[in-house]
Amino acid sequence: MLDVNFIRENRALVEKSAKEKGYTDVDIAKILKLDDERKSLLQNIEKLRKERNEIAAKMKGGKPSEELIKRGKAVKEQLAKFDLGFIEGALNKELKAVPNIIFDDVPLGGEECSKEIKKWGAPKEKGVDHLDYAVKRGWLDFERGAKVAGAKFYYLKGGLALLENALFQYGLNIVLKHGFTPMDVPDMVSSRVLEGAGFAPKSSDQSDEYYIEGEDLVMIATAEMPITGYHMDEILDEEDLPLMYAGFSACFRKEAGAYGKYTRGLFRVHQFNKLEMYVFCLPEQSKEIHEKILSIEEEIWQGLNIPYHVINIAAGDLGAPAAKKYDLEYWSPVNQKYQELTSCSNCTDFQARSMNTRVRRKDGRIETVHTLNGTAVSLARTMVAFLENYATEDGKVKIPEALQPYLGGKTEL
398 near 390, Cβ under 8 Å? Predict the structure, then answer.
């Protein structure tokens, strides 16, 4: 959520950013009108509260006059009529519809306008289809997954289950080396945390989450959600920042908007495991940390020797919280194109303001922190990329040196 005073002082910038992101229903005029009404109401409430206190003071130590009693009742009735909560609720609803502003170096336009900024590795010309290979070896079972839970749920077995664990341990060791604190997180969050993290509420046609009927709970789509709420309603100390967490969790997504996208096998499923990097930091630190998170993602994939490129995501393809986002896409030798693998976003103060997460500066000033997130290892897609690059037609999976310690020294599966 953006600060309403920032919106007032930077109206043209906010409107331009919203338009570039494709948010056409943002009504800045309505927001400013509601904020004016809120301020006016607050002034009236404070004025009446002051008068109420003065009346209460005059009533002490003696019998109050009828006129004073009458005025006291009138003030009480007036205060009861003022519904500050209604105005603030209406204002917050409108504020939630306003996306974060974009950085100056974000490409403008839709998905097709995202720009490649770097490339690593030599793309391979041939690869093994992960689904056919894993099913043939008895490592992946979508049929029984569908029998017990529905389409796009699955069982991992044997070598693929071992490979998933090895990839997680490999990614975890890298992020620990860079100072991240490991964290297991709740698999559910409240609607406040969901929306505060910038995800669409249940009432939205863009909602992609599984809700718990009769409860104010939703299954998480990423560990980003519960970690966003970890320091909710807290004031952190400047000397403690940045706080860097690596959250491991199952992720649950309906993938309702996946029509027309690549969905084969494990690439797009309803449940998968993921290791997510998340940082709370000072505002002046966030741009540098964003680059650091990207470099860690690159380190992970260079260690696995899987070719990739990095793209600077265009404004029209950014979600509401992100001011800037990088995607790392691996080269698929099967499909002969780059496919989405990881991402990292700088959300500036957008999420933290909704979560009321602030920092106390050494001079006593209090301000909103910045938050960033980035995928270390999204395990289902990582296994797709790995099998495409390392499975051989003779039925073996070659294990690169970086992963061998996590598979008991094996050089192949």
Answer: yes
Mean confidence (pLDDT) of the chain: 94
Contact (CB, 8 A) for 245 and 372: no
Strands 308-312 and 324-332, bridge-based pairing: antiparallel
Residues tagged active-site:
253, 268, 340, 343, 381
Each residue of 163-199: pLDDT tens digit?
999 999 999 999 999 999 999 999 999 999 999 999 9
pTM summary value:
0.92
Q: How far apart are CA 361 and CA 236, in angstroms?
A: 9
**In this predicted structure, what is the pLDDT of residue 258?**
64
Q: What DSSP assignment string belongs to 40-102?
A: HHHHHHHHHHHHHHHHHHHHTTSPPPHHHHHHHHHHHHHHHH--HHHHHHHHHHHHHTSPPPP
DSSP three-state, residue 384? helix
Is 35 strand, coil or helix? helix
Average pLDDT over residues 33-57: 89
- Nearest CA to 195 among 228, 231, 244? 228
What superfamily would CATH give domain 4-96? Serine-tRNA synthetase, tRNA binding domain (1.10.287.40)
Topology, domain 111-407 = BirA Bifunctional Protein; domain 2 (3.30.930)
**Phi, psi of 51, deg, nearest 5:** -65, -40
Q: Assess whether pLDDT exceeds 80 at residue 200.
A: yes
Q: Where in the chain is the domain with CATH 3.30.930.10?
A: 111-407
Question: pLDDT (tens digit, 9 = 90+) per residue, 80-129?
Answer: 888 888 899 999 999 999 999 999 999 999 999 999 999 999 999 999 99
Angle at 182 (CA atoms; ends 178, 186), nearest 5 degrees:
145
Do 236 and 357 form a contact (C-beta atoms < 8 A)?
Answer: yes
- Residue intervals of the chain classified under CATH 1.10.287.40 are 4-96
